[in-house]
Design a protein that fits this description.
Elements: E1 5-6, H1 9-17, E2 22-24, E3 31-35, H2 39-49, E4 58-60, H3 67-70, H4 76-85, E5 90-95, H5 102-105, E6 110-114, H6 119-128, E7 131-133, H7 147-154, E8 164-166, E9 178-181, E10 188-191, H8 197-203, E11 209-210, E12 230-234, H9 237-245, E13 250-253, H10 259-275, E14 280-284, H11 292-303
Parallel strand pairs: 1-8, 2-8, 4-6, 5-9, 10-11, 12-14, 13-14
Antiparallel strand pairs: 2-3, 3-7, 4-7, 5-6, 9-10
Bound molecules: threonylcarbamoyladenylate and magnesium ion (MG).
């Protein structure tokens, strides 16, 4: 039997064309993709992911020339973000064009768009057209940053006869895209991510609201990026060492001296702690600058009380 993991883009394109799902590598995390024009395929994304059907998916494009097929009337802010940050870890929320499936937008009048910076996935989208995809993890768990993570999470829900995992290596950014709602006036940052918040502010001349507080866009529940182990947050290495001394089966996670590496390795470290049955992961929070915003956000969610 063929392995569900492949590096063959044409095999992945065939899976999409015949209504199957493809786990796609991106620079941020792996996505679970369907043809964005195929309602039945998009519905299967929700089944495989175990995600409520009213949560919108991001539409992934290969070229900014396709934006007009998906969005109506772009604001100046949306244009500036698209022109500067794509391909890259930035999603814009814009008014949706007619014909965009409700299955993709969760019934909203807006749609999230981005061009991922990953050559294999760009090649795939050039062959298939736009792909609707959330992160390729089961709902509520940590996003996958390798093909193996996708297999670990979704293997039993994927259909080896129709779905594939396109292996593009480890994701170089490691946290999800920054999301900017460009329908709001001024635009609002809904999720801190791979493009630092400071860069968004600079691009939009500071005319941006930061909505990344506790009440957020749909689908951004408080405990969303949770491993099984307990996560405790501390502000510095001394606090971490003190806490570890009094906490059985605990380990320290501290990559604060290299924030790009902290982001890149974060989800893999959480998964690895679970695989080794660590009881408590004591994570040192990075400063709220650059990628530090996104890392703090994900760590805070990983540490939030579970429902
Ligand atoms: O980096 C990423 O963004 C990855 C890769 C695969 O592209 N995708 C990702 O998708 O993180 P997902 O579904 O796990 O997170 C996307 C978030 C969700 O919280 C969803 O609610 C929000 O984006 N979103 C998507 N479309 C939206 C819309 N029209 N309005 C408001 N929020 C939207
Ligand atoms: Mg997700």
């Amino acid at each position: 039997m063929l392995s569900v993991i492949t590096t063959d883009v044409e095999r992945a394109a065939d899976a999409i064309r015949t209504g199957g799902l493809v786990a796609i590598p991106t620079e941020t995390v792996y996505g679970l993709a369907a043809d964005a024009r195929n309602a039945a395929a998009v519905r299967r994304v929700f089944e495989v992911k175990g995600r409520p059907g009213d949560h919108p998916l991001i539409v992934h494009l290969a070229s900014a020339d396709e934006v007009g097929d998906w969005a109506d009337e772009l604001s100046g802010a949306a244009r500036r973000l698209i022109d500067t940050a794509w391909p890259g870890p930035l999603t814009v929320i814009v008014p949706r064009a007619g014909g965009v499936l409700d299955e993709v937008t969760g019934g909203r009048e807006t749609v999230g768009l981005r061009i991922p910076a990953h050559p294999l996935t760009i090649e795939l989208i050039e062959r298939t057209g736009a792909l609707a995809a959330p992160s390729a993890n089961r709902f509520g768990s940590v996003s996958p940053t390798t093909a193996q993570h996708v297999l670990d999470d979704l293997g039993e829900w994927l259909d080896p006869g129709r779905d594939v995992i396109l292996d593009g290596g480890a994701c170089p950014v490691g946290v999800e895209s920054t999301i900017v709602d460009c329908v709001a006036d001024p635009p609002q940052i809904l999720r801190a991510g791979g493009v630092p918040v400071e860069d968004v502010l600079a691009l939009l001349d500071g005319d941006v609201a930061d909505a990344t507080g506790p009440s957020r866009a749909s689908g951004m529940l408080a405990s969303h990026y949770a491993p099984r182990c307990a996560v405790r947050l501390v502000d510095g290495p001394d606090d971490a060492v003190a806490l570890r001394a009094g906490t059985p089966r605990s380990e320290i996670l501290d990559l604060t001296d290299d924030l790009a590496r902290y982001a890149r390795e974060l989800y893999g470290r959480l998964r690895d702690a679970d695989a080794r049955s660590v009881g408590t992961l004591i994570a040192v929070l990075p400063p709220p600058v650059g990628l530090g915003h996104a890392i703090r956000d994900r760590l805070t969610k990983a540490a939030a009380p579970r429902p």
